[in-house]
Amino acid sequence: MSQQSVTENMEFVFKPIGVLKTPYKSKSGVPIQGGFAPNSEGVAEIFEEFEAGLKDIEGFSNLILIYVFHGSVGYKLVCEPYMEDRLHGVFAMRAPNRPNPIGFSVVRLQRREGRTLYLSELDMLDKTPILDIKPFVPRFDHRSGARVGWMERTLGEGDHRKVSDDRF
Length: 168
Hints:
By secondary structure, this protein is mostly beta strands. The chain has a single domain (about 15-135, about 145-155), classed as YaeB-like (Elongation Factor Tu (Ef-tu), domain 3), CATH 2.40.30.70. Helices cover about 10% and strands about 25% of the residues. It contains three helices and eight strands. Strand 4 (about 80) and strand 5 form a beta hairpin. The mean pLDDT is about 85.
């Protein structure tokens, strides 16, 4: 059996470590990136069995949350992103409807109280299951000279959509 056929048939089961509570109850109107909504606030309630994993997290100003796009249904490999009215491949954009509905966002950690993380710069639906948390480290997570492909056009214009609509 070839290596490719082995990996094609693999499946993974993930168990959430917590849940997000955000002001966004429906998909329409959610910021498309947390940086577009610096004042959006919510909390991450981490399940008790994972609380010890939060040790020393309060020393970080920003966190990377990895989560499930639990409101997604199906996917298209080519679709129109929020930021532009042209078609692009799903792997060349950050659309929520994906073959594996996994999302990530960089959020700001305001404070920690026990198992509760108070966050801002949120761009997720209420009740989003959290799969993992990683500290954002500028030295690791920044790449000088990085290119942004088709987004170069829209990011420079400044008039692109900053919140979601009903396309996904």
